[in-house]
Design brief:
Layout (H helix, E strand, L loop, with lengths): L1 H19 L3 H30 L14 H23 L3 H13 L3 H10 L7 H30 L6 H17 L16
Helix pairs in contact: 1-6, 2-4, 3-4, 3-5, 3-7
Amino acid sequence: MFGVAIGTSQVIIMYAEYMFGWGNVESSIFISIINTVRVFNLFLVLPIVTRFFTKQSRRAWAIPGSTKLDIVIIRLSVFLDLLGYIGYASAVHGSFMILSGIIAAFGGMGSPTLQSSLTKHVPADRVGQMLGATGLLHALARIAAPTVLNLLYSLTVGKFTPTIFVCLASVFGAALFLSFFIKPHVGFDDSQDDE
């Protein structure tokens, strides 16, 4: 999810400029609206939802695994991203493009929730390893995702310009389907490492 967000930002602007004749002013307004929604979502909505729907664990030593709330937030975020990319692909006017961007921006709570969820599946002494591995994947995504997505866009612009968004919607559709196989409260069994 993180790599897609990094990789699509340039493509979304180029797409809007090509399809709707946007200039610097319209693109800047679009980016400002999307980033404002993303900040609002991550600094207000996500903490409030987490505060009201999270129960404190009585066993601090337990490795709880993802909670039902984590899984619901991840699924909702992937669904909102899916809707956003479908909206980008089918946008016939700039205002619909902005609406799709707002919907996709609300999907931005998935990445931090997913990373937080991953830390609930490993013992405390291995959280650093897990965060290091995800940091490496994020760094690789910052390089690979823009390259691949810009290449795909350059190959399809003028032929079937929304191809990039159709492909991304397909990826998020598959991710949404697979997210229904995630089970809550499945933790790491540390007893196997002691043997």
